[in-house]
Amino acid sequence: MPDTKKYIENLSGAGKCIGVLTSGGDAQGMNAAVRAVVRMGIYVGAKVYFIHEGYQGMVDGGDNIKEASWESVSSMLQVGGTVIGSARCKDFRTHEGRLHAALNLVQRGITNLCVIGGDGSLTGANLFREEWSGLLDELVQSGQISEDAAQTHSALHIVGMVGSIDNDFCGTDMTIGTDSALHRIIEVVDAIMTTAQSHQRTFVLEVMGRHCGYLALVSALACGADWVLIPERPPKDGWEEQMCQKLSENRADKKRLNIIIVAEGAIDQNNKPITTDHIKDLVVSRLGFDTRVTILGHVQRGGTPSAFDRILASRMGVEAVLALLEASPGTPACVVSLCGNQAVRVPLMECVQMTQEVQKAMDEKRFEEAVKLRGRSFENNLNTYKLLSHRKIDTELPHSSFNVAVLNVGAPAAGMNAAVRSAVRVGITEGHTMFAVSDGFEGFYKGQIKEIKWGDVGGWTGQGGSLLGTKRTLPAKHVDKIAEQMRIHNINALLVIGGFEAYLGLMELQAARSKHAELCVPMVMVPATVSNNIPGSDLSIGADTAINAITDTCDRIKQSASGTKRRVFIIETMGGYCGYLATVGGLAAGADAAYIYEEPFDIRDLQSNVEHLTEKMKTSIQRGLVLRNENSNENYTTDFIYQLYSEEGKGVFDCRKNVLGHMQQGGAPSPFDRNFGTKIAAKAMQWISKKLKEFYRDGRVFANTEDSACLLGMRRRALLFQPVVQLKDETDFVHRIPKEQWWLRLRPLMKILAKYKTSYDVSDSGQLEHIVRLRAKDSSAI
Fold first, then answer.
1. CA distance 342 to 168
2. Among 53, 228, 377, 600, which residue's beta carbon has the most beta carbons within 10 A?
3. Among 26, 166, 179, 552, which one carries the catalytic annotation?
């Protein structure tokens, strides 16, 4: 069978010129995208040009269009905003302006454009492309360019990347800058919560989003806000009364503070703006609560990009260059984006049209439709928020008479508490009695089990670690006592939130079902571990927070070398035998190498890395960063690598080493982990409710099938329930990792961006997907 894979080695950019520009409002992560386009472009042999100040620079020409070099994008990765500048450009909107721009590009031989910006910038780029041949004809007629030049540059190729903190662009799951903006918002909310708690205050926070409520909605989910107002779902008439009632109920329930989050574009049913001052006046006049308004403003656009945005932008930048290399004159302009954790290309104009349709639906008061057009992810966020924020009165609740237990197993991971809160509240809404088990399976067999109520989990989303307590103990040795506790408390279902021990534990409980009827109940596991080493799931709760901790520390460590020249840092990360943290952390921090167990290395590799760094020190970039996973090799320890580099680099560079240790497990959860934990646990709880009904026979629950003990994991684009028995074959139990791991495909990216020649399989990219199909497929999206 012939090998149908496509490799980067077969794609050449020789003779091609790529222009890269950032346009419209800035967003954190734009620099990472520019860096990736420049380095990938140079890597494939193309010339890459910076176009400074967006379209204005393209129209003005001159020094605004400069050739980029490998070194010119060094140290850009951790900088917020856009280093090459962005401007709103009136000239480009005129025909005359676009004529100037075309001339400037043709003079430099640029016929490939990579545009990083919002929908306005991308629409402008598409118009430019459509007019291109006409503009060249005009330039030939006026004698500014020759016939030959027009012939050579007859087609303009355009690839877009969406840089916008609002996440308001249809067809993309996440736009560059959104995650960083959420980080800024959550930092502020966490800080405000402590002062609000002290004074029993109500805070009204305004976040950005003139036409899109994504930031408001997700930050409300991530901090457990009492009320949220967004343009896509205006509150029903009489909302003022409802809101005030909700706030006073929460205060009666021993809650010392209230948080209300408002998108700047929030409107009521009649399309009239709802302002923060209006809400403040309402709360003060009706409830008499001490109320303050905080408008976050441009803080949300600023600061260093989060790890997610750096990785997103780096992946998109590389994908954009591939798309330009593969473009033919007939290819429509496309946008590269992520769907789940997969890179996709979607036609630019389909996305723009759909984005405009959302606005039109909102203008015409078709709000239900506006929410649907935003996509499944937005709709799921909204539904989850509604599920968790509004406590129903007991008379409204279905009463199920089922008891469901929740426990944490394994090492602590940031986001576990958000998952527990979500599970408890969804469980109570579904009518179950919820029980919390302290200290994992150890607490279970010792009988540390008590009922947990709605109010008990208030304020849990932002807390790191595990408030329930967690242990690595496995259940097999204590299975008799666990079965007895299940009987005593009449537990009808189990939700286990944890790492590899949770996965093993669930298998052991399932194996013990034949001896203990008490264990024949629905069980589901939600993966939560910083190592991200659980089979059946591409991501686990806690990994994003750990990657951010690694990235922040690497930034600081790199900065410490800015005064001392020629220094290489060796940094050891956690992860057991799983190289996820080292690889993805390395990609986000701009590492030169990352040593992991999954990709064996020998002394020759270490030698060539030292040589590579020696070459690098001759340029203007005089520092290096090398990551090593803690168990990557038992003989090539961190100390060994440090000593080898120190000896071999003598006279060229000196070395320092750092072991990051448990700081990777601590800290407040990132917005992504809070959200992921909240949504995945809510889904797990709904599955439990469904299974309880399914397995209820003759007055009791009896579940003994394979599919009644599942792991809920994220696979490519969807959340899937997978029987743990079926995951056995996918697991390397000795090294506690899955046999196949998706992120290994990102390793060549890190190497390319660090100037290593490598083989990169690009057969996964390149299919242009239509946006309608994308939405239909996305039924179990997160």
1. 19
2. 228
3. 166
